Amino acid sequence: MDWLADFPPGVLLLVVFLVVAVESLGVPLPGETVLIGATLLAASSGLNPVFVAAAAAGGAILGDSIGYWIGKRYGRRLLSVLNRRFPKHVGPKRLGAAAHLMRRWGPWAVFVGRFIAVLRIFSGPLAGMFRMTYPHFLVANAAGGIAWASLVVTVVTILGSAATEFLHRFSWAALALAGAAAVVIAVVVVFRIRRRAAQPAADRAPVSMTEAELDELLSPSGPASATTDAEDRVDTPPTRAAGSAPARTDLRAAIAVVLTPLRWALRTTPATTAFVTVFVALGVVTGGLWRPIDQAAWYPAFAYGVPSLEAGRWWTVLTGMFMTADPLAYLIAIVGAAVFGGWVEVRFGTLRASAIFVAGHLVGILGALGAALALARLDWPWAQSLVTTLDVGPSCGVLACVATATAFMRSPYRLRWRLLLLSWVSIALLYIGKIDDLEHFITTVVFVIVARLLLGEHRSTPRPTMRDWRLFAVAGLLVIGAVQLLVTLVPLDGPLGSTTLTQGSILDVGFDTVAILVIANWLRRGHRWAWWAAMVLTVGNLLVTLALIALAWLAQVPVVASTIWISASVLWVGQAVVLGLSRHAFRVAANQTRRRLPGAIGPGARRARARAAQLLREHGGGPLAASALRPENRVFVTADSGHAVAYQQHAGVALALGEPIGDPGGAAAAVSAFATAAEQEGLTPAVFATRDACIVPEGWRVSPLGRDLVLDLGEADASEPAGPDDATEAIVADSTTSILLPARELPWELRSQIRALSSVWVSDRHVPELGLTVGSSIDAPDGDDQESAAAVRVSVVTDAAGTVLAAVSWLPIPGAGGIVHGWALDAVRRALPDDDVDTATRAGTASREHTGRAVERALTDACRRFSSEGASMVSFAASGLAQDGTEPDGVAVRTMAGIAHRVDPLVGFTEIADVAERLGATAVPLLLACREDADQPRVAYAAAAGFLTGIRLRDLPGLSGSLLAR
């Protein structure tokens, strides 16, 4: 903490406040260590320690409060992901128990957690995640923050430097006690659960909860129906195979269950577990967990470095791997070795994982020592300081595992994370330049290059997309700005000298920061003017540095004052290279109204639609091609006019609908051309409800969207539904009438009733109006596209009084040569069920069944009619909203499931699926494709905006939530 001595008292208090606040957000920073160092400096500089305690307490309260709101805002999403990935371990029962414990003991956990290492980092986000009320959290948080800061400052003021070791020992001891207490509590809980599970079902209290109750469960008051619904349910004892032994309920069995994760770690990651165990044990023995050990008398005998090798202590290259010189480094090394070392061992086995770890350690250490010796001969002061330094730690082996893990990520994350890793070690070497930074740089560079070669897998890094280039350009500017601000607060001494600021450099850093903040967002969107502005800023900084070096050389004066420019110029050179290589990714015009594909509006749009209509007559299309020429759709035509892509544009997303129109052999090239054109205009491309994954560009994220049910009229016997049941027989007995007419030929009285049904469902029942792949053709629109509207047919079922019970609209599926190949179901309208409070429940149920039978008759009679007319297929669910029963994958697919859930009372997807399956329809998977996972939220909002008119961004979580939001 020697760097704290460079700050004046006011800045020192600000640093304490910020570091403690950021640590409380959930970022592992040495907040307690900074507080101890600041208190020691305050005692020697005359600063009142009360101010230091107040700054730390204020930072703790603010940081924990922000962490609380972060957990409350995004914690449900994390729990949803964990529930889908690990439903056995993060299910309703365990979430319910965790929420109950948080409501009962949460304030005490927040208060006590402030005094325990590691736990103080996560107490705020966890409290927000499990919906602790903020007043209770604020009281506990404020009390804990004030008590913690006061205790630390008081102990340090009384004990002086000896307080550092005492407080660190206290934090680690408290963490150990908390871990032991957690194990004991877990054993007791498991013991009680297993004893209760062994009792008969009638003797056990209900503990299970349905998925629908989880949203209420996380509320501060708990589930509202806990006293009613829960009493009606009793847990079903787990089924046991015949002749199997009953589950053990003794204490030894409970301990075995709690220790199962440890047994799994010993079985799957023995090398990682052994290393972490030895590493922690040596930290306890040497005291490195709570105090720096680089001043100990025995330290040179175990630390590696040039002095150790010159003295013949060759074993230090290995012994130094099992300890670190700083308590914070211990925490980072333990987490890094356990996570990344364990992943590599699970992925590639113990032998190869151990070889990667040891090889990375040796390459980094020996490479850095060799480079330091070679550079020291150049009389470089920085290099000469390296050859006299000793170091310890397993960080090189951990970084080798990290580099190996990034090499096996899927595109595009593989390239991004590897560049992030290389940027981090490069900046650390440039501005800090200690021996460990040189070791990290060498290890990372080597293993990023050879990781796949060592493991026998050869896959080249993909070429960056336009989105990647934009991301790299923006990230480079933001990193340069952040680094320059950092060295403004904390002057560093790297290979190129000290970064102590002068008046001129302060002005330069301020100008660069403002310029970066102004152009960063526009650069992210791909605007051409922002690229030029970034290039001018980059070249300007390089020219200033060259001018200063030339002036210093001509005037024969040292360049110490301009060292900060020289250090930053290395980053600006890299930024210039990135901007030069990515110039093709910035073609978006400054005028936002021009962010559209060619042929989107004006005469070009009319020509594009005419060409699409011609392609439909020549080549035909799939079920979604029937709605391709709707007025709300736009059409993209490829450069050779051989294919057309129907799409809609919402929220900066160009959402292609189905497959391209044209020769199927060139569909993949058409989608690639569409994606390229969208990216060039600053839009996010995506493909919605496609049936063919082969047309999606390589590397895109493809998710199952749902299913379409397709009836082959050439093979199926549509004269009678397959497997008739009582409901089908009741249809014949009903005094209903079914007709199938073009929408333009419907009698006025039927058309007015259908429109009235639509209005009632939307206004009274709050069922949203749909768009995108589901149109309003059933309402007989009088739009501009007379040809498409005239082709729509409507099947209507009425009762004896002429009242419309159900209406279904159908769109023609075009075939080659201009013939009608088949029909696709577009929209459904049904009479409302009788929900009058004065009507008996049985009557209401009968009314609902009556409308269901009417929809079934409309579907079956239409299929018979289409079959008699020579159509070859019927599509029942081409919209992409019909789900197949599997758990949705990704926020976009979950959003579609949420929309389907909202409109299901009107459409009846399950009912339509039952009818289609009885008729013999087969399921065809529908897919949603986008470039990467990061595009999913934007694509979800765009698809929702297409389906639901007037949707707002704040409505999206309610649609995309999984079991936690429904």
Envelope shape:
elongated
Helix content: 55-70%
Structural category is alpha+beta
What's the number of helices?
A: 33
Terminal Cα span: 50 Å
Strand content: 5-15%
Overall mean pLDDT: 75
Can you summarize the main beta sheet?
A: 12 strands, mixed
In words, what does this structure look like?
This protein is of the alpha+beta class. The protein contains 33 helices and 14 strands.
Concise account of the structure shown:
The chain has 966 residues and is of the alpha+beta class. Helix content is 56%, strand content 9%. The chain is elongated.
Fold blueprint:
Blueprint: H1 9-24, H2 31-45, H3 49-85, H4 92-113, H5 119-129, H6 134-159, H7 162-197, H8 214-217, H9 251-258, H10 260-268, H11 270-286, H12 306-310, H13 316-319, H14 327-348, H15 350-376, H16 381-386, H17 395-407, H18 413-431, H19 435-454, H20 466-489, E1 493-494, E2 497-498, H21 503-524, H22 528-555, H23 563-581, H24 602-619, E3 634-637, E4 643-650, E5 653-657, E6 661-662, H25 667-680, E7 684-690, E8 701-712, H26 726-733, E9 737-742, H27 748-763, H28 786-791, E10 793-798, E11 804-814, E12 820-830, H29 841-868, E13 873-875, H30 891-907, H31 909-919, E14 922-930, H32 936-947, H33 956-960
Helix pairs in contact: 1-2, 1-3, 2-3, 2-6, 3-5, 3-6, 4-5, 4-6, 6-7, 7-9, 10-11, 11-14, 14-15, 14-17, 15-17, 15-19, 17-19, 18-19, 20-21, 20-23, 21-22, 22-23, 26-29, 29-31, 30-32
Descriptors:
two-stranded antiparallel sheet, alpha+beta, 9% strand, elongated, 966 residues, 33 helices
